[in-house]
Each structure stands twice: as C-alpha cells, then as structure tokens.
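for the writeup, i need someone to sanity check this before i put it in the appendix. the sequnce is what the collaborator sent (i think, or maybe the updated version? ugh). structure was predicted straight from it, no edits. if anything looks off just tell me and ill rerun, i have time this weekend
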Amino acid sequence: MTLLVDTVFDLDALLTDEERGWQQRARAFATERILPVIEDDFENAHFRRSLVPELAAEGFLGMHLSGYGCAGAGAVAYGLVCHELEAADSGWRTFVSVQGSLAMSALHKHGSEEQKSEWLPRLAQGEAIGCFGLTEPAGGSDPAAMTTRARRDGGDWVLDGVKRWIGLASIADVAVIWAKDDDDVVRGFVVPTSTPGFAATPIAGKLSMRASIQCDVVLDGVRLPAEAVLPGAQGLSGPFACLNEARYGIVWGALGAARSCLEAALGRARTREVFGAPIGARQLVQGKLADMFVEYEKGMLLALHLGRLKERGALTPAQISAGKLNSVREALQIAREARALLGGDGVTSAFPVMRHLANLESVRTYEGTDEIHQLVLGRALTGIAAFS
C-alpha cells in the first residue's frame, strides 16, 4: 500500500526488511480493522475491546521487549507500528503504549521473576490488560508530590490514595501503582484490580480520545502481600524509565496522525474545485502542502534517528523530549492546516482531521506537556534546572 507522501520522500529505503514487515502489518491492521469502525467508536465513546486479542496475535503488545512471549523487535520497528496505529487513531496507539511501554515495561524492567512470569505472557497474548497508575488529580507534571501512600502493616503493604487519567484502568486485570512508602520513597506495586479497595471509574465528558478509556482510580485500604512490590524500582527513576518508553512511541505515533491529516489534505487538493480548477493548482495551497510535508518528513527523520540511538543504547531523556515536543507540536500544526484546506467539510466526520486534532490535544498533554519537555531541554542546554 503506497501513500502519496511516500512517493516524494523514500523513507522506506532507510529501513530494514524486518522493519518494513512490521510497518506493513501494522498498516494493514489499521486499515482493515480500525478505520472501518473508528468514526462510530469515536462518536459513541466506545473502546472496541475485541481488537485486543487481534493486536496480540500480530505481536504488537510489548513487541519491543524480549522473552515471556514478547516479540523482541527493534526500537524502529516498534516506532513504525506506533506510527501506523496512530494514523488510524491515537486511542489505539495509546492502548499499545499503556499495555506495552508502561505496564509491561514496568514489570520487565523492575519486576521479580515471579511477577514477570505471572503477568508478562498473559499481557503479551492479550489475555490480560494492564494499566499504569502514576498521575494524580492535583497534577501530572510533579510526580514527586504524589499523595498516594503505601504503609507497612505486618508483612503486608496497604495502599491509599487517588489517581487520575489512568488509561485502561476500568478494564485492566493488573495495575502498576506508584506510591510513597513510610520513608517517602516512591515504590511500584503490582495490584490485581480484583483486590478489595481498588476502584476505577471511566472519565466522562471527554471531547478527545473518545475511542479510548481513561479513568479515575481510588485506592482505599488496598492490602497487598510483601511480594507485590516491584523490587527493582526505588525512587522516581522507576516510573520515569517507563514514561520514556511511552514518550518514544509518541515521537512516531503523533506523526502518524499528522500523516493521516496530510493525506486527507492532499486528496482534497486534487479533487476540490474552486474558481474552475482544483485547489491544488493554486500557489498558496501548494505552498501550504509543501510546508506540511517538509515538517512531517523532518519529524520522521528525527524519529528514525532517535530509534537508531535507542537500538544502540545511546538514547537520552533529553533527546526523547526533543522528539516528543517536535512531533506533537508539528502534528497539531499540520492537522490545523489540513482542516483549513478542507474548508467546512474539515469539521465533519467525512474526514479524520478534526478527530486527529482533538486527540492530539491529549497527546500534547500526557507523558509530559510541551512546557515540561522544554524545561528538560533547557536543563540539558544550560545545566540549570528550572522546574520550580
């Protein structure tokens, strides 16, 4: 399946055969299984859970992890899958991110062998769904100020607190919950969602990410055995390592939404006639399309560079911040330009642009706002932290 944007800039030439295989599989899945239903699902705020085992069968869940039934794919291959899924809808790239880059990565990086063996194969096969509880109602940009507590009670841990904007929590089988212990050290806990005291409620009234699920979570005396703690995580470096995995996926994913908007604008430019000619024949329109295309391809080259760095083990948090900031910012601008070129029809569900634009506003906020990533880069450039 050749896209219009691919005919001008041959990015595929920079990929391996294996990477192109993952890309084409994800593109086919998005085209055949997500696109036919996504407008209705977005309109009805419906998460189509039946697609989860199908995603698992393609190997997409935790695909960048090794062992425990995971595919062990490279970073670029994972990025390309994120790109193709988000070209259909941000909600489905978000699902793969929450499942694989957050919940599964937390277990893979920080869990005990028993925790890994119990949960990772089930999560990879889509037999279980995971979530990642870090953000709280007072704000997500300052996780050090979290109020969720984990206290020792004999040989057990007891968790109390509230989390917000937790993806998949109401349908999850297991949650990775981050809380401060009695020494104010951030610890991670593996919490089966059937545990008494765990409650998740989907957030209503969303005008973005409507085909996805985000929840409020209440932890009311959630009692866990000692072995529920993630042994490899102490301090904020534990959750941050997982957030960087998710942010990396966004670098690629947001550009998938941008590509979808650019493709819609290109198609319309060739067919919509004004003043006796297609609008694509007008210099102003061609200038806008060219600018959109250039920013899209620059973003893709940056994503590819970051992927190669990640595969060498050389990718830094500041580099990820540069990618996330650029991809989402440029994707939003491309979506806005595409909406304008589509005219009044651009605000209808006949085209995917307004849906992508609404979704990207959420993507802009989660896994670090623009401002947080600017401050990360500012610290890297100056050596001075300006977070407070």
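The longest helix spans residues 237-271. The two ends are 49 Å apart (CA to CA).
thx in advance!!
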